[in-house]
Amino acid sequence: MKIAILSQDSSLYSTRRLKEAGEEREHQIRVIPYLRCYMNITSRRPSIIFNGTPLENFDAVIPRIGASRTFYGTAVVRQFEVMGVFSANESQAISRSRDKLRCMQILAREGVGLPVTGFAHATQDIDGLIETVGGAPLVIKLLEGTQGIGVVLAETYQAAKSVIEAFRGLDANILVQEYIKEAGGADIRCFVVGGEVIAAMKRQGAKGEFRSNLHRGGNAEKIDLSVEERTTAIKAAKAMGLNVAGVDLLRSNHGPVIMEVNSSPGLEGIEKATEMDVAGKIIEYVVQNAEPNNVKDSIKY
């Protein structure tokens, strides 16, 4: 099978592992930097051109679209879909999950557990916004932030008010969420492939750090999920329409709550913590499902 990995950097761990896993299974794997592609959009013979040559005869693509490149990256994925090429994650699902607000609204509609969340832009009623999530301590996020950037823990009412006022001065969209103190600075990454949780790890933030991102000094270990946690992760990925997803959740006093659903989850942390061939599982899923014009996304929002 001929598979394209859409990635800007072939040296990244996740890209390398996917390429290795595909080649180990005797498939033709090609890494394509999607920003260097351009498209010929016609009604009968759409195409994607890279280095002056049309990209043809691919059976499937595996998108590894950077958060800051979502618009163009999903346009390339969508063009492959127009050409009838199967995508591990469809363009619509990637776009849906990348919009944090839209993601949370969809999960709320589907009844998936979430932290109590408020959303605002230029409201003057800061007191009301803070009370919406039960007061301080609370977490304040820039809607456009990634990898823990633009995320602030406000431990007091006055701190929360000051941060919200500062963010409002940036003309920014703001998410305000209850602080799940009982999580103890840890979250759980559930790796979902084809509607199944194939691996899970607990990520613990560094001492004094409430964010559990591994690149911020956190550590990870394999963990066993409860039935409720497993069901919640699968439901969240399905709600986004994602076949491959990293679902991040917290253990709260009122059950598992979703923090994020990632359409291009990194493989390094999960493979090292669980010693599982996650890249191989992704390749196997793609091979089993790669049929021409196999576009399944029917979610209406």
Helix content: 25-40%
Helix and strand pattern: EHEEEEEHEHHEHEEHEEEEHEEHH
Largest sheet strand order = 14-13-12-15-16
Largest sheet: 5 strands, antiparallel
| CATH superfamily placement of the largest domain | ATP-grasp fold, B domain
EC number: 6.3.2.-
Keywords: ATP-binding, Ligase, Magnesium, Manganese, Metal-binding, Nucleotide-binding, Protein biosynthesis, Ribonucleoprotein, Ribosomal protein
GO molecular function, one term: metal ion binding
InterPro entries: ATP-grasp (IPR011761), ATP-grasp_RimK-type (IPR013651), ATP_grasp_subdomain_1 (IPR013815), RimK (IPR023533), Rimk_N (IPR041107), Rp_bS6_RimK/Lys_biosynth_LsyX (IPR004666)
